[in-house]
Amino acid sequence: MDRKFRCLKEKGFTLIELLIVIAVISILIGIALPRFKGMQDEGNIAKAKGELRTLQTAVESFYIHNSQAYPATLAALNTATPSIVTTTPTDPFSSTSAVYGYTRGGTNNKFYIIFSVGAGGNGSAAISGTDTVTETNGSSCIYASNIGQDAAP
Hints:
With 153 residues, the chain is an alpha+beta fold. The chain has helices at residues 2-11, 15-65, and strands at residues 101-105, 111-116, 124-127, 133-137, 142-145. The chain has two helices and five strands. The strands form two sheets. The protein has a three-stranded antiparallel beta sheet with strand order 1-2-5, covered by helices on one side.
């Protein structure tokens, strides 16, 4: 009887061994999660840049087919003739699943900016009085414009 009890006792893990395993797993998770978040942001940046290029092409096409005028809103692209885009994509960084920002302005209203709020979630852009793009809120804005392209991020 004593021999049988001793064999059962030797087969299990002690509480200390289980705590050490849990601690090691927790440390590994703590290292991996921030790296995953960084890769997710990189993917969203690439997605935003691609969609901004597509929207920029759609805005330029609208300009060509509609009396040399840019659309008042991005939603106008959805109903344009000829059909340019069927739906306006949503900004991957928007916490409310909003579409990309869009503004017209500058000399004779001949410039536009399409922008994402960026990884910080608060970026925006405007056209200054000197017909240049200015980031007006935060520094994480990603934009496409007929004035110039965003060099960062």
